[in-house]
Structures are given as structure tokens and as C-alpha cells.
Amino acid sequence: MTDATQQGPGRDAGAGVLPDGTAIEAADIAASPPQRALVLHRQLDKVWRDLPGWRGFFTSVNHGTIGLRFMATSFVFFAIGGVLAMMIRAQLATRDGAFLDVELYNQIFTMHGSIMMFLFAIPLLEGLALWLLPKILGARDMAFPRLSALGYFCYLFGGTVIVLSLLFGVAPDGGWFMYTPLTSRTYSPGINADIWLLGVTFVEISAMAAAVEITVTILRCRAAHMPLTKMPLMAWYLLGTSVMMLLGFPPLILGSILLEVERAFGWPFFDVARGGSPLLWQHLFWLFGHPEVYIIFLPAAGALSTIIPILSRTTILGYGAIVAAVIGLVFLSFGLWVHHMFTVGIPHMALAFFSAASALVAVPTAIQIFAWIGTMYEGRVTLRLPMLYVMGFFATFVMGGLTGVMLAMVPFNWQAHDTHFVVAHLHYVLVGGFVFPMLAAVSYWMPLISGRWRVAGLGEAAFWLILIGFHGTFFLMHLTGLLGMPRRVATYPGDPEWEWLNLISSIFGMVQAAGFALFAFDIVMQWLFGRRSWRNPWKAPTLDWAMPLPAPSYNFASLPGPRQPDADAILPLARGEGLLPGAPRGWRETLVVEPGSGRPQHVMVLATNTALPVATSAAIGSFFAMMLAGLYWLAPLGILATLIMAWRWGEIMGTTTDHPPAEVAPGLSLPLHWQVRNTLAHTGAVALLVADATLYASLLFGVGFLTVVAPGWPAPETGFGPWMLPLALAALAAMAVSTVIAHLAEARRDSAALRVWTLAGLGAAGLGLALLAPLALGLDDPTRHARDALRGAVVGFAVAHGVIAVMLALRAHVDAVRGRIGGDRRGALPVWQLFQKFWLATSIVSVALICAQEVLA
Ligand SMILES: [Cu+2]
After folding, report:
1. Where would one find the signal peptide in this protein (predicted)?
2. Cα 340 to ligand 1 centroid, rounded to whole Å
């Protein structure tokens, strides 16, 4: 239906439009004729399944496999973090516990917090999102399957390094928030802090990958004609989560990079004596750390909004209000970080603002809680296992919310700050707001994962042990905190009145641990001995149950269309009466829609089994390993290996021939993704640049913050030569030229001169990068003062992006030479353009910034 010879700007209109030019409406989509379900299954299974045996472990990219791996691995780390928690409780059971020495105790509480946050909570929600999203949205896979696999291996390797450090006695010990100057070279000379900084950053790569992937999948990989306003609530929650991850993680990643550079090379970002400030770390950390609470709460709340109506035999109350509450939380959560810094000495005006915002955040939370209670009131609640965990959530989370409002009051906060009261509060919020809903989710979706039904009684026993154990442990900590017991102390010999409360806490802690062990045992028993579950055991109306149990690798034999939006469609979909039935071309295909309306636009051909993700994560890992070993001169080799791998990712993205449109339904054919401009890769690049821009903005925040607030300014005289400004302007000019050429190349993609254009663009981008190098070398010694260190970071940012821009230009040129561009095929051109603009814009700001510093100094 796309006319390949049609020219001009309108030719992309082939996507989502009928031959006569009108948009594809739901009524235009006819049902495909039914086929034999078994034949379709065999055809799809052959295309979609993982390779057998160990090869499958290294090459699988399927969202089902990767999502389950994420979840299983996160539960292993949860068990390790739980054992550490029990060691803490054993130590505190008596007033001068001789179980651990102070040094080991510091490592253990730091590792407990870091593991639970970075290796359990975030990966578990990523795993759930990866596994579940295509199923509830009506797609066959996530938008970027290889990215899922890359994220998993980065998580696995990084997490393993962090945990192994404990065995070698070099685990991080500066608290999970890693405050400077405690974690700077002077006070933490070992590699403990480096393990945290490098390991967590490595794991964060997987979080960024997941955030990009979740955002793009929700916006563009939904069932045909499922508008944003009608998608399942879970998708809204996960969209909110992924947006917060895109905006919340970059400050932490930047902070980790800066602190590691300070530790490794002596650049003084946080060193007061040389113009830095430890407060900069706190701001960057809590810019991430506070939204983090909502990043893990939102998916859990999404699970609640899914499970509660189904187990109450009704529909959710107030869909619109809940969506508004989710959006409200996303905005509010970013305004709150400073409430973690009440007592570091900030202006009173700011205190008042953050106190108000902290109290205000209770409003969207309350809207959701009332919607859930109303839903249960309207319906008939059946107290099956997932519902028990929902009740556990209510009992725990509401209590955590109330103490949160208490802590939002500045006078009370001054009293309770850094006592066990805060420890109790945060565990009520995190366990109530994340662990209980996630256990509900696991027991709810387990039949779809295993295809089996659980053994009666075990799950209930586990629930009661966890609930009683939890409240027994943490309720008392409010009291120990009010009695004044500070956090993070290993012994309290002078305060015998805290002892009996701690002892009872520790005993209940063991009860809770037994409950979690029983939960795990229940899952194993279900796998081994559960009887086969019948289809749709909860009688849920949602699309995730419109498939056989356990869920097949391709999810749907044909994708749900406008008339098949719920679980009743299971048989028609299995018979191929939906869209894109089977795998007639032998490719992994899924439908891509317009973000808002859900009108079908084109067909995406997804990557199949490949070892590239594991090889890439090994390359990135080699860089981190060499940094950790202090082999700084070898570390560039790791970067080089990573760049080589990155180059290979682009290899499968192109095609040299025009493929005929794929038949989606009778009389409706759509172009394949190679022949459209607005691909998933393009949307993904936009999402990634949003995160990148946030990172850059955090860096600018650092410059502003240190310049205004830090002691030790003004900075010493610069050796800024008069030759540097013309050089910088020449670099900017070269970047501007390459940006313009990237546009011209796309406009001239059918001309014989295309290769000349891309080659010229490559040359201009390369010149821009080459001119940055002497500029970087001409800067003042970055170890001298924070201003010089920040300049180094700003110019380093431009250089790093220059390298990527040159690689994209080279990719565009190679695409042109190989005939991958022409007609409707644009190869790497759109993404190259996008990146060029970003490089140019940030570089202009950087040069302006340095000039302004010179003028104002
Ligand atoms: Cu907070």
C-alpha cells in the first residue's frame, strides 16, 4: 500500500493511512479467516523460541525469558539482603553484641540497603514490566529485545561484583547513600567505595535501558486502536515509573561518575578545601533518591490497581482520577528531595516549601487508596492469596504514610532525624508499598508463569508469618527511635533501656525471615507438584489472560484488534482471527501504533536470538573491572571494546531492498519498519536523549551550585589562552555544519551524491571532535580547583558525545555505501540527525558557560 516511487515529504504518510489517504479507523479492520491453532502455534514457536540449553542462556532476547530471569535473580539478591538484615538484628539483639565488629557491621548495613534498593527492588519492577507489558498491551515483545538482554547481563555482572566484595571483606561501608566526605579518598582509602560507585553505575545502565524500553513500548507497541486513555492502569503506572527513571537516575549516575573521578584522579568536586562541597553529592543523590521511593511504589500500586478490582469482581473506581494521581506523583516527587536534608542547614524558606510539598504528596497517594477501598466496597472481595497480600499492604503502608506525615513536620523531624523511628518509617513504606504488593503480584500471575496451580495452605501460612514478623520487628522500632536510639550504631552499652525492645524486634525479625523462606518454598512446590491450572483462573477481563498457560514465547498467535480487547478473545486470537497472524515471513513481528490514538502505523521486525548483548555487557564490564583494579591506563581499552560492540548493534538495523508491505488484516497492509521514518529506534533515541539532557542539566546544576554556595571560591586565575575562544567557535562551526549536512543527506537520499553528503557529514563531525581535543588539553589542571574540575567534566561531556556523533555519521555513511538508504529507507540518518542536534546544542551551552565564567571572574 505504500507507493515506493512516491516522492516528497508526504511519502511517510504510508504509515497508518489507507490508500485513499484517510486514517485507518477501527471499522476498516476486518477479521482474518480462522486457521488451525496448532499449525499457527508451531509456526510461531519456531520463530520465537529461545535456543535450547546453555546457548539459550546467552542468546535469548525474548521479553518473557528476560523478564523472568530479572525477577528470579532479584529474589536471589533479596534472599542475600535478607540474610544481611538478620545479621544486623542478631547484632542489635543485645546491647553490646559481639557478633560483628564495627567495620563489618558498617559493611553489612550498607550492603543491606544497597542490595535491597539497587539489586532487588528496581530489578524486580523492571522484570515484572518486561514480562508483563507486552501481554497486557497486546504485543508480542518489548520494543528493543536486545536491550532487555543487555540490561539483564549488566545487572547480573554488576550485582555479582557488589555481592562478592562482601566475601572478600571490601564491601562498601559508607551507608547506602554514600555521603562525602566519608566516602572520599581521605576517609575511605580502600576500594570499598569504588565497588559501590562502579557496581551501582553498572547496574544503573540496566535501569536506563529498561526505562527507555518501557517508555517506548507503552507509547507505541499497544494493540491496534487501544488509545492512551483506555489502556490498562498498570501501563499508566509503568509509564509514570519509566519517566521518573529517565529523569531520576541521571543525577545519581552523574554523582557516581564525579565521585569516582574525584577518588581515582583527584578532581575536587566534593572537596571543600579546593572549592567543592559535600552538599553537592547530597543534592545529586537525593534528586534521585526521593523519586526512587515513588519509582518503586508506582509499579506496586499498578499491581494493586490491577488485582483489587479482579479479586473484588468489579471494575476499578475512578480510572481518570487514578491516572491524574499517577501524573501528580511524578511531578511532586521531584520537588521533595531536600526533605532528606532538613538538618544540614538550608534556608528557612526552602524548609517551609519542602515541608509543604512533603505533606502535599499524601494527596495523590490518598486518592489511590480511596479508589482501592471504594472498589472493594462496591464489589465482592474474595480473600484469596493475592488479596491477603493486598490487605497486608493496607495495614502496613497506611501506617508508613502516617509516620511520613509526622516526619514531614520540621519540628518533629529535628527530634526523630537519624533515629530508629526513621528506620521503622522507611521499612513500613518500602515493605508496605513495595514488597507486599509485589508478593500479591507474584502469587497473582504465577499461574501464567508456571502454568500450574499452587499447593493449598502453604502460601497463606507464609503470608501470616511475614505479616506478623514484619509488624513485630518494625512497630517496636518506632519506640526505640522515640527513646532516642540513633541509626547505624553497632552497640549501645550505655543505654540498657533500649535492649528489650531490640531483643523482641530481633525475634520477630526471624519470624519474618521464616515467612519469606516459606514463600520461596511455596513457589518451588508449585513448579514441581502443582496441578495444571485452567485458563484464566481469576476470571480476569484483561488481555494478559487471553493466552494459553503457561504463556507462549510469542504471547498471541494473532494480535488483538479493535474488536478483541479483552480476555474473552482467547480462542479467536489463537485461531489467527486477529492482526498479523502467525509468522509467514519467518520474522519476529509486532505492530507499531500511533502513541495517542493507537492507530496502526507499521510493522516492526524485532531482533532474534543473539549473543551480542552478553558480549556488549562483558565489554562494558571490562571497563569497570579495570577501573576497579586501578588499571586506569588500560581502561580505555574497555571503552574501545564497548564502541566496537555498539557498532555491531547497528548491523541488523538496515536492509538493502524494499520489502512489500505486510498484510496485517484482510485488505490492510502496512509497511515494515525499514520503510518508515518514525521507527521505534527513533522514539527510543528521543527517550534516551531526554535522560542524557537530564544528566547534562545535573552537571550544570553542579556548576551553579558550587559557584554560588561552596566555600573556597572565587577560583584561582585561569590560564585561559586567547587562542581558545576561536578554537571553540571553530569546533562549534564544524558541529553546526555536520548537523546541517545530516539533514541534507536525508533530503537527498535518492541522489547519486548521497555518499558524498554522508562522507562530508562524517568529515565535519570528525573535525568538530578533533578541535575539541586541543581545547580539552588547554584547560587548567582539573585537580587544582572545583571550577577547573567542572570545566573538565563539561568538555569531557562534549568529547564523549562527539565520539558517538562520529560513530553515527560513520554508520550513516556505511549505510549509504551499502545501499541501505534510498526511497523510503533512511538507515541511520534520522537518529544521526537527532544526535547531532543534541551534541551541538549542549556544546554551545558549554562554551557559553565557560566564556561567562571568564567574563564574570
Ligand atoms: Cu523522600
Report:
1. none
2. 6
